[in-house]
Design goal:
The protein is an alpha/beta fold. The chain is built from twelve helices and ten strands. Helix 1 packs parallel to helix 11, helix 2 runs parallel beside helix 3 and helix 4 packs parallel to helix 5. The protein is globular and about 50 Å long. The structure holds NADP nicotinamide-adenine-dinucleotide phosphate.
Length: 335
């Protein structure tokens, strides 16, 4: 379909996609959100990325997650979203919840990294230009900066909202010890932290163990889980080898040497448990994250509309029996 002819599917809000309230806020997010970290950059197939974004909206995925440096090249995922806005998505701007971030390296010199007011403010201005947007729905501080006073980073978030450049703010990858300060600083300035974005999947449960998940729940802050499929490991992608077009084949963010015989055996066991539930492994991995209401949204990546459609199916069954949970626990406790 030519971009400009795009009409979002009339069925997109037919009840298949649950919308979950984000902490104590007025915002509901789709149980499954789409991330633009991989597959949306200048090195990727734009038409396929565009088809994936349209497929997302057609199926009720209203939340697109970006960051200043997503690509590669840095900035190009945002540029491509901007192209998509102009080609097809602009009429749906008010149906979309678009997020971006700054906190990792973006441009050379002392002002293109970490958490200073100087970096966050100028980065968001650049992001808005690339995405061809007047505002983002949510702006994240992408990581904690141990050298910048937290007051400075948090006040920059407050001022970004006051300037109308973001409707809400959030934090990502912050250590648990900083959460009380961040949440109360923002709340006392009437810009409550909407959401915490953290890495969470069956094989990486550090946000459970550190208390981050429970701290968010106690503070009325939503939680969105990134890399919920452990970059694709928790799917059928690698059960029969390493496909040439996979993230692991690129051997950069997901290294080939993680796929040990022991891991493969565990993935096959999990795949068997998923099959007995009538699910694929990726569906079960996402359902497991959504099972107890602590996760507002699982933030998946997808290199094709087909992958995204499989992942959306996860919401059809997020209930686990005690015996399924125990079988899963036996496999994942060592991770
Ligand atoms: N805040 C942060 O610091 C941070 C860090 C990382 C990510 N994130 C956010 O989280 C998003 C998701 O991260 P992620 O891409 O690592 O998530 P993920 O969902 O764990 O992994 C996505 C990858 O898994 C594979 N995959 C997805 N669905 C599949 C299916 N049904 N069957 C087989 N393979 C499937 C694809 O790999 P192939 O490409 O091999 O097909 C896809 O690119 C990012 O886009 C970003 O928005 C945030």
């Amino acid at each position: 379909m030519a971009g400009t002819d795009y009409k979002a599917a009339a069925s997109r809000y037919d009840g298949r996609m649950p919308y979950i309230r984000c902490g104590h806020s007025g915002v509901k997010l789709p149980a499954v959100s789409l991330g633009f970290w991989h597959n949306f950059g200048s090195v990727d197939d734009f038409d396929k990325a565009h088809a994936t974004a349209k497929c997302a909206l057609d199926n009720g995925i209203t939340c697109f997650d970006l960051a200043n440096n997503y690509g590669p090249e840095y900035g190009t995922a945002e540029q491509n979203l901007g192209r998509m806005m102009n080609m097809s998505l602009r009429p749906y701007r008010d149906e979309l919840f678009i997020t971006t971030k700054a906190g990792y390296d973006m441009w050379p010199g002392p002002y293109g990294d970490w958490g200073s007011r100087k970096y966050l403010m100028s980065s968001l201005d650049q992001s808005l230009k690339r995405m061809r947007l007047d505002y983002v729905d949510l702006f994240y501080s992408h990581r904690y900066d141990p050298e910048t006073p937290l007051e400075e980073t948090m006040q920059a978030l407050v001022d970004i909202v006051r300037q109308g450049k973001a409707l809400y703010v959030g934090i990502s990858n912050y250590p648990v010890e900083t959460l009380d300060f961040c949440f109360s600083y923002l709340k006392s300035r009437d810009v409550p932290c909407l959401i915490y974005q953290g890495r969470y999947n069956m094989m990486d449960r550090r946000v459970e163990k550190s208390g981050i998940l429970s701290a968010c729940a106690a503070a009325g802050v939503g939680f969105t889980a990134f890399s919920p499929l452990n970059q694709g490991l928790l799917s059928d992608r690698y059960l029969n080898g390493i496909p040439h077009d996979s993230r692991m084949a690129r051997n950069f963010f997901l290294k080939r040497d993680v796929l040990t015989p022991e891991l493969l055996k565990d993935l096959n066991t999990l795949n068997g448990i998923a099959a007995s539930r009538g699910q694929t492994l990726s569906e079960m991995a996402l359902a497991w994250l959504l099972r107890d209401g602590l996760v507002t949204s699982v933030l998946v990546g997808a290199s094709s509309p087909q992958q995204l459609l499989t992942n959306i199916n996860a919401v059809k069954n997020i209930v686990f029996t005690e015996s399924e949970l125990s079988d899963i626990r036996q496999v994942i406790t060592k991770y």
